[in-house]
Write a structure and sequence with these properties.
Shape: globular
CATH architecture of the largest domain: Roll
Order of helices and strands: EEEEHEEEHEEEEHEEHHEEEHEEEE
Largest sheet: 18 strands, mixed
Helix content: 10-25%
Radius of gyration: 19 Å
CATH topology of the largest domain: Diaminopimelate Epimerase, Chain A, domain 1
CATH superfamily of the largest domain: Diaminopimelate Epimerase, Chain A, domain 1
CATH class of the largest domain: Alpha Beta
Length: 289
Amino acid sequence: MATARELAVPLPRGGLYRRPMRIRIIDAFTDRPFAGNPAGVCLLDEWPSAAWMQDVAAEMNLAETAFAHPLPPGDDADWALRWFTPAVEVDLCGHATLATTHALHADGLLDGPVRFATRSGVLRADVAADGRITLDFPLATVTGVPVPDGVAEAVGLPVVAAHETGSLGDLLVEVADEQAVRAADPDLTALFRLPWRGLIVTAAGAPGAGHDYVSRFFAPAVGVPEDPVTGSAHTALAPFWSARLGRPELVGLQASRRGGLVRTTVAGDRVLLAGGAVTVVDGNLQIKP
């Protein structure tokens, strides 16, 4: 990767003019464009201010925009990675991590698995020969709780059961069947008032559907009314459905309008999330940090 000095052109008075900064939109958890979850990806030499990254994420207006820069040899990780919604910085994001890995691989910057230093610890990702990317994330502990007051009304559906997700900070609610998940039309204002990062709505997959479970994810409190495909939510969905179905390896469908498949494997206290990615936009930011 070029250094900041290599990206700069000297000016007569000793100032520096940076060429426009590259940014991409990459669709994650899909093998075709205009599906899955689009993420912004911006590779940097060092961190600019958090305010600048938040402004860029708001301008991109995607569920998340990822920013990454390389770390020195010998560090515990290879790249530092941060994620921003249009409204806030978040602790964990799956699809933007997958998109960042795809960008690094496309640029020839990977030699085997990559380690990311994040607010959720060191996360690993690996790219297979066919381009499929596998993320290694911490498993979210799922604990059953009574259905909280106001949740069924906010979801707009009868709720079969509710589960806290520990440090993930979401509420996972089970509804009757796949059709109910697809038909969900929650009250986003009511969801905004609930004390969780987001709401995961899930049910078992319909017989013969080709996936084991189905979900949708709503997080208006962090500026994401509905997320198309949510890797972090699958760190809770995977152990929940693996325990229910008795298998460590499952396929989850996130049934948003765009839709996407997440292949999940529960491995001890970790969850492996696998999927493809496609670069859709490759351009330049004209505003420097």
